[in-house]
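>> Question from a student workshop board

For tomorrow's exercise we were told to take the sequence and the ligand below, predict the bound structure, and bring the output to class. My setup keeps failing. Could a helper post the expected result so I can at least see what it should look like? The ligand is flavin-adenine dinucleotide.
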Amino acid sequence: MKLYDVIGVGFGPANLALAIALQEIGKLTDKVCFIEKQANFLWHGGMLLDDTTMQISYLKDLVTQRNPTSHFSFTNFLHHQNRLDSYINLKTFYPSRLEFNGYLSWAASHFNDYCHYAEEVTDISPITGQNGVEFLAITTRNHEGHEQTRHAKNIILSPGGNAKIPEVFTDAFKHVNVWHSSQYLMNKDKIKPGDKVAVIGAGQSAAEIFVDVQNISHQPKVDLVFRAGAMKPADSSPFVNEIFDPSYTNLMYENTPEQRSAFLTEFRNTNYAVVDEPLLNDIYGRLYTQKLKNETRFSIKNNTYVDAAAIAGGQVNLTLRHAQQRSYIEKYDHMVLATGYHYSSRPPLLKSVTPWLEDDIARDYQLRTVDTFKPKIFTQGINEATHGISDSLLSILAIRSAEIADALNIS
Ligand SMILES: Cc1cc2nc3c(=O)[nH]c(=O)nc-3n(C[C@H](O)[C@H](O)[C@H](O)COP(=O)(O)OP(=O)(O)OC[C@H]3O[C@@H](n4cnc5c(N)ncnc54)[C@H](O)[C@@H]3O)c2cc1C
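>> Workshop helper replied:
Here is what the output should look like for this input. Compare the format with yours to find the bug.
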């Protein structure tokens, strides 16, 4: 069986950036491949809503901070689409998410010969020889259930996050009318005239979906339900934004565990349970206009706890409690859980190799292992606790991918 130098698990922006970095240093050979469970490249397809924009500058694309002259820059993409002049006239650093997905898909299309789409990696197992673990067996399953195994000396695990479903919603989430935000666009058409929708959460996705439901032409009702006292703005001011600079990764990594977690707490309001200020202003304006017209089609239920979520007669019955008041039941036809993602630094896929893994990860994203374990395992996008908030974002893709490409001893 062919022995790959590198197999990348997942082909989202992180491994796409890595493919580019490998190509640019001449290390992308036929002994490198990526495996992606989606049928084609798609960046958070369930949330590619109209009128949503990127939360970082397009200069933080897949390459520019490392190699501004790269073929794979966002600017070169615009040039290839004959949209560069028009884009300049937009006067913005923040393209729409639809356009950024177009950019990423364009970049990914250059690597079709290296990526196996529509295959999910289901197992990673050690293959042992006389001196310990020599390489890894990566097993995949395609959409028809067909299994395939490939062998690799190194793997780069970049699986992204998994939908976080708070316990109170576990049962309701099994129902066809209850979706995580990542499934929103695939289900939006189920919202019919006269329906009432609950959106749970107070972060960017919750706010975006709240507005998107309002914009549906047949005008369903929609409530935004969350525990916090108010929706709060994301801090993207310049000094704070420096925490997303690639050089900040060193600072974070060199800290003690206590300092790291204090840092994450201090800067939580850059990324978690916060909303871009223009969107907050838009929502406030919409609510004001509604008040003016004496209408009640959409509302914000802040300070509101969901004590129970039950399905009855095809509807979602939420037991809600506003601060210290008595609880009451509110009925909805659909519920969207914009409750975020889990990023496990040790995903279940690593279970079979766990006995050889040490607790730590190196600065170059390589999991530390015992000496008898020869393969190298790198992880990307799931190391917020050790490498900082930017790890699950796009901010450091150009630089991190080169750091990993350099650390891979392939020729
Ligand atoms: C709606 C939304 C908007 C965002 N906007 C921004 C933004 O503006 N700026 C920013 O910096 N960050 C943003 N983010 C954060 C986001 O995490 C990053 O943009 C980026 O997607 C991270 O790339 P990744 O490759 O690490 O993870 P992902 O993009 O999640 O990609 C992981 C890939 O791995 C695949 N995969 C997972 N498990 C397997 C398996 N077992 N087998 C095969 N394939 C597998 C998945 O299908 C997926 O394609 C946003 C996130 C969301 C949800």
